[in-house]
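Following up on my earlier thread - several people asked me to post the actual chain instead of describing it. Fair enough. Here it is, all 300 residues.
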Amino acid sequence: MELNDIRYFLASCETLNFTRAAELCGVSTPTVTRSIQKLEEKFGGQLFRRERRLTHLTDLGRLVQRHLADAQKATDEALAEAGRYAATETRLRLGVIATMPAAHLVAFLTHLRQKAPELDIDIWESHCAELGAALEAGEIDVALMSLPDYPETMRPAPLFREPYFVAFAPGHRFEAMNAVPMREFEGEDYVKRLHCEFPSNFVKLGLAKPYGAVRVRYATEREDWVQSMVAAGLGMTLMPEYLPVLPGIVLRPIVEPEVHRTISIVTRAGRRHSPPVAKALEAARTMAWPQSARPTAHSA
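Reply from S.P.:
Thanks for posting it. Predicted structure:
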């Protein structure tokens, strides 16, 4: 049974005239007639008795009228309450990759606050695989993340592109280079950042994974540990350009090939955008994302 069938039936009960009921509902008379016939088939009997130019409710019609009037009232109340809820919905569950630059995240949150000061935001930090699973499950509403390719169930809107740099301690042989070709990584000690997106972005170029050319000596999820080990000379690492860098670390661009990632704001395909999600998407698309001051170099 459709809501329109109930509406046409109740209008017919009020007017006792299908033509006037159709005018009241803004549809044609045959539409109302077909709807009444559907309900009569559904309830197993005549709802109206038509005698020449007069139309009356049957006993069954009066019984059905009471129940459908209650159903229409409940529907109207539900729609009104849902409208009030949508107008006052202020909670946004935002997933953010752990390597998202703090300056970019804060700039986005500041811009979003200016656009939608009523929003309250829960921020969930994790890696791309976990954020994607949370988005699929509805545990978060939207995510700032970086994948080379997205499944059909996700809708990414690209925001900014970020190249990767090689990071090492002062005095390393890379310091003499303006940029470091990928082949120079062969045999170098490496500090691996767990859940790093670099390998997948590298594989998208159609080349082998980079970790086969280095000696992975340490692996950890903690960014401060990764950079502290690099600064201590325990190995090199790779990092996105805009990530904050601890003192005592030297950076050089990676070339031959250059590798980059694209940060996107991602929603679940087919899911209606709530007002907070719509505002987050609009803020992400309209803001001027910060650019790095680090110079682009060429290989020596």
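The two ends are 74 Å apart (CA to CA). That should answer part of your original question.
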